[in-house]
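Quick start: load a record and inspect it. Here is DUF659 domain-containing protein:
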Amino acid sequence: MMDAAQREKADKLWSMAQAVIGLPFRTFKHPAFEEAYRFSSQFPSYKLPSEKRLRTTLLDANYETVREETEKKMVWDKITISCDGWTNMNGRPQMNMLHISRHGELAHRHVDGSKETKSAVWIAEHITKDIEERRPPNVLQFVADNASTNILAGKLVRERYPHIIFLGCVAHGLDLLMEDIGKLPWVKEVVNDCKKSIKFIKYHHMTNAIFLYFFSNGATLLKPAATRFATNVIMLDRAWTLSSSLRRTVISDRWISWANDPQRPPQTRTDAREAKETILDERFWDKVHDIVMMMEKIFVLLRQVDSHKDFLDQVFWESWECQDILKNLHKSTELRSNIITPSSCDELFLLFRHRWNGWTNIIHTTAMLLNPTYLFDEERQEFPYHSFIMRDFQEYVTLFAKGVLQYSGDELVQYLHDVDKELDGITCLDGSIWTHIHREKLLSERCRTSPMHCIDQKRERKSSAVLNTFMKSNTQQSILKQRHGTEYGSTSNPRDAWIPDDVLQKNGPEIALSNGDRVRVKTWDWTEPVSVEEVLEDTLQARTMRNALVDGKLPVGSTEPMENIVYYDDLADHDFRMIAKCL
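Running the structure step on this input writes:
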């Protein structure tokens, strides 16, 4: 046992080691440090590992351990692959490969590009490698900044995997938009004047001390960073907030005494006079106010997309609102200067549209359409681009279908089944609801008996087959629930899903069921070419009823009241096989 003197000496040795090495104080509270110390103290003969072993074998072993544990925690069912180029301290170009899922982000690997030309083909090769590693059905999109090589790489990836969408980084696009706006002469002049005045105050000890300790109550001015123009907006906003303190600073006796000191260099006195004139100019502050107000919506949008918040379904709507604000900014009653005119608003509108076209994507409009906020908000239902959004949605579903057809068997079944879960319970503008239209057993059978299994058929026809399956349950579930007390398809028996929709345009044979009913099954004539557009046009209509096996007195597709339709939830296996043959 240690006595008090020995314990005191040991504590001092640890404290000295911590101070000399520069270890953070929290190191001694970290569970990993405590565990290592507790285990090692059981063996008095134990010696610490060498620096070389720590740098090499032990570091590699720990890396693999952490990697394996992280992989176990993550679920790679629907992921985004992202790449980002950077330069290390030695000036060597690197590229990080990130895998992002609903459970978090993983820095999967980094690629040394010092001996390679960072072309679109080179980037696409590494993206493809990661896609194959995670399996293509599990990858939804590829995200990178808006550089031309990345855009071309996205096209190359999409040629091989049609369902994987390239998504330009919205945050990068918004920052480029701010840079474009900052280059406008009437904006650049105000930003430069503000930057020059703030730098003068910040870079001189006396002026900064006068401002901080006598007038600002501890609030500091912010300097812009060289890498992102958005920091100029932050600088302007902080300067506007502290404008009263800045005015009091430059008219104070301390400032005047320091700025007019004959011992100061002439250039310093000139800069002090110019900074004072700028800060006391009311027109300058009116322009700062208007520019901050102009950039506010863009900056808020940038902060939203540059966070860990799920914002994909809001990007298109918020971008459209931002565009509308910029276009009509000259009508605002809060403007204080004359720099925001109809012509300047036209400039802003054109710049925004140029960058918006770079970051917007069909996946944004599709996500917006499936957002309940958009579906139920009256203002958003009057959105003028609704038809445009519907076209994007149709295009995305088409790409999804073409991509899915590259996979077969259980992969296809599981992929459609997962998509089904995502769409479950989402109500559309026409009142219809996407429901579970696939059950694993049903899909397994259908993939073996339907034209989807005939991989040698024309892609257009195969796409129509998948689309018919994918969009099969666009039906007014709310009416069904109101009249029957249950939602169609909610039964545990999935066989009702065999019943084709009225999108299937050919009448099949009459069948005698085991219970004595005689019904006619409607089928699709797969020998005739059917375009994707025909399927989409029909299936997206609001339905007052679902095609079902009905009483022999009612033909399939009848517009009789809903109460007259008979839904068979408990068909015999024999009946089920008979219907399957007709399909």
